[in-house]
Write a structure and sequence with these properties.
177 residues; alpha+beta; 26% strand
Amino acid sequence: MSNRPLTGPSAPSPRPPEGSHAWRVRQAAEDDVPELVRLRAMLFETLGGEFFNPSSAGDDWRDALGRVLKQKLTDDDAQILVVDGDDGLAACGIGTIEQWFPGPHSRNGRIGHVIGVVTAPEYRRRGYSRAVMQGLLDWFRGRDVVRVDLYASTGGEPLYRELGFDDHPDPALYWRP
């Protein structure tokens, strides 16, 4: 499993052909929260490893996630996009914006983060993740974000690179207390 930090894009991303699909990307609503939690758990199962195993963590994290998702649905610096499936959500993606300190590499300090783009296995290879990403990138552009960061799984990395993401110039490190 790769979980590489990527950054980008600066150029507009291509759009899928109009009318080519019967589905659409929409903003998530409070009724979608249980399905968003289900898709996030699916993402962690896909990533694998003990750290990502949702079964070994109990349900506390799911309850906390549900509360945070409800809060983020009304947050101006968060965007949660979904695609409906036949019975629940087929795909989702979350974008957030943080205000960092401006500098020569970041004129206004507005940094975007893409969190957990995931498509249920039975809906993959239909363009749902691409459409969700394009919606998030449009949202970031409309809010004057100077950079968008994400961590890519091995399966998602080709899509992100195609959309203009590149290796992050800084090493990705983290600390856990």
